[in-house]
């Protein structure tokens, strides 16, 4: 081949690649637009009632315990509407209870939906709050209190949607459960994990869960945007204890190797495990949906997140956001290093540490542990696992996810839905591990300040937010039953 021909061939290849870049895009999600009857509901009136119930619920202090009082409150609302309620106590602990209420559907063997929420809340730092956190204070349209969002607010939206299904006598194709659990904030030993282990029968015929884990946001990702991030997956956790020993000595004459230095060299290398960006189909769909509401040139790049030519640009964006990094990478956090120092000129003989590694669904938590353990051998660092948990994922092409995605933009025009992978875990991870399909969404549009209130200060929820949440959840349940009926024809 002559030099000229080679030039033409190369030019043709470059043009072909450019053409591929322009034409080929990833794909987004596939929402199902609502098609069921839109029942006439006075959501304004309902959200005022829900607000008043939320005030009462927030006054019941359930900081990592005392769920019984919260459960009795929910029970009283359900029983007034003639819904039978079961309260299940963790053996030997009268305060740690969960609550179950059910509406039975036509086909009780499969397809049931569980609306799940937790009664416990986390503690508060009183010095940070500008309002009392356990008085259910209302100022204008806003109700303040620990748990207003996480998760008493969402729990009440679920309860109101559940009661609407009953009161309007919506024909149910499958079972519907309202489930309020204990102990979610302290890893669910007395709540979900106990129920799944000792009361598995409760969940026969159920297939789906609507839970916390994702939320709607406005103006956060992109100015003017309204984005409902529906959580469909959670990362796994690899929590490791580290220990290295060496000779002690004088700080003036350091040996080549000693404990503190070995630990630091090791940690330096472990951190490199968290630098590879992995974009799974769902992450590509997440970026694609954001692209749909972005201006050029971002829209061009976001819709082509796995294009090798554009990868560099996207990587820059991901690098600059800890949230995006957590969604697309295994991460390593150094959460403790201690060389047990005794004096500034003394080299000590032992250094201990802890790291919190989070793995994407699809990366094995056990393989990650083994990898870090063998790295440890290189530096003389002993690595032991305190807790290993796999990442979990539910499909985003299934009916309930697609229906929820369709309903949010019907209720809030101009809003989009994305498939969201959350770095932390919720009770959904225990259900997913048993095959349930779980989706997490607080169906409300929050500002970033409001989101900071979760586990933070001045947590609050407004009446219009309650209204939006009740409507989205109720219409999702209506559409789901409608869809099931159409599909079974
Ligand atoms: Zn929560």
Structural notes for this entry:
With 489 residues, the protein is of the alpha+beta class. The chain has two domains: 43-232 and 392-488, Zn peptidases (Aminopeptidase); 236-389, 2-Layer Sandwich (Alpha-Beta Plaits), CATH 3.30.70.360. The chain is 38% helix and 25% strand. Helix 2 (43-59) crosses helix 15 (463-488). The longest helix is centred in the C-terminal third of the chain and has 26 residues, at 463-488. Zinc ion binds at residues 118, 150-151, 184, 212. Keywords: Hydrolase, Metal-binding, Zinc. This is Peptidase M20. Residues 233-377 form the Peptidase M20 dimerisation domain. Pfam families: M20_dimer, Peptidase_M20.
What CATH architecture label of the largest domain applies? 3-Layer(aba) Sandwich
Shape: globular
- DSSP, total strands: 18
Report, as a whole number of angstroms, the end-to-end distance: 64 Å
Q: What do the pLDDT scores average to?
A: 94
- Rg, Cα atoms, Å: 26 Å
Quaternary form: single chain
Low-confidence stretches: none
Note the total helix count: 15
Content-based structural category: alpha+beta
Q: What hetero molecules are in the model?
A: zinc ion
**CATH class group of the largest domain:** Alpha Beta
Share of helical residues: 25-40%
